[in-house]
Amino acid sequence: MMGRFLPLIGFALIAGLLGFGIYWNKSHDQREVPSPLIGKSAPTFALPLFDDPGKTFGSADLKGEPYLLNVFGSWCPSCVEEHPVIVRYAKELGVKVVGYNWKDDPTDARAWLARFGNPYDVIVVDAESRVAIDFGVYGAPETFLVDGNGVIRLKRIGVLTPDYIEKTLKPAIVALRGGAR
Amino acid sequence: MIARVFAALIGLAAAFVAHAVEPLPFKDAAEEQRFQHLARELRCLVCQNQNLADSDAGLAKDLRNEVFEQLRAGKSDDEIKSYLVARYSEFVLYDPPLKASTLVLWFGPFVLLAVGGIAVWLTVRRRAAQNPAPTRAAGEEEDW
């Protein structure tokens, strides 16, 4: 008697497994690689300044203050989508916003910023993708929140959205101030 | 004529394959072999179902250069891997390491295979016992 229902039970189990798979993929971005760097010190770096390539700017200049590092490139379509959000929020975040021009052509980057606006306090250039590997960057846009002690607190893979800024980034920045050592 | 066109196309395709991944200045065959072996064990993070050796993505090229330089600098395979794992997490390894959280991944298929095998064996044995001589009249309904 029981044997009759075995195929049905088997089917229900497989359907359940597949359903869970669909649910999981909908609620998780498959491309998102969890960063092992959260809670660890940001890599030390010194990269050429976008506006003055003869000079370098890096972790030494940012010592003691929290900052947001936004990886972008003029070649990156999602950055175009993200950029207005940064332009809108950059001033109200209360932390320095550092642009990280990654694997880009300077002329293209200049035209891109002229067209979409430049919300950054300072922009560093990593055309060779040297420091990007240390940061574990694998795509653009990516955004890091680094605290005053140089520890990476947040990493956003993909586009910054108003929703993410309001619900995750701003509270994290507030927490930085509260817990400032 | 057609054969010649085909030959040209195959030659062209081969040329593309050969140039898909930029060559690095290896000093000998052993070094190249070691590099290729390592690159096959590392995942291209942009195109996640490719390994570093196969991928032509920009980042994969950067990572290959990084691996090559560290290899040149005398780092061991494990040192290079842990360097990348520290930055990109274990996801960068094409073969997931064997540990508690990956046990199901490693052994799940074998467990399922065993369960299926036992089920088939039990069914076959039971039917054999029920129906020792499968004599069937022609036209009788097929029923399993």
Walk me through what this model shows.
The complex is a heterodimer of chains A (181) and B (144). Chain A is an alpha/beta fold. Chain A has helices at residues 2-27, 77-89, 106-116, 131-134, 162-178, and strands spanning 46-48, 56-58, 67-72, 96-102, 122-126, 142-146, 152-157. Chain A folds into two domains: 1-28; 38-178, Glutaredoxin, CATH 3.40.30. In chain A, the strands form two sheets. In chain A, strands 5-4-3-6-7 form a five-stranded mixed β-sheet, with helices on one face. Chain A has a two-stranded antiparallel sheet with strand order 1-2. The radius of gyration of chain A is 21 Å and the shape is elongated. The mean pLDDT of chain A is 90. By secondary structure, chain B is an all-alpha fold. Chain B has two domains: 21-97, Cytochrome C biogenesis protein (Helicase, Ruva Protein, domain 3); 99-130. Chain B contains five helices and no strands. Chain B has helices at residues 2-20, 29-40, 58-72, 77-88, 103-130. At the A-B interface, α4 of A face α3 and α4 of B.
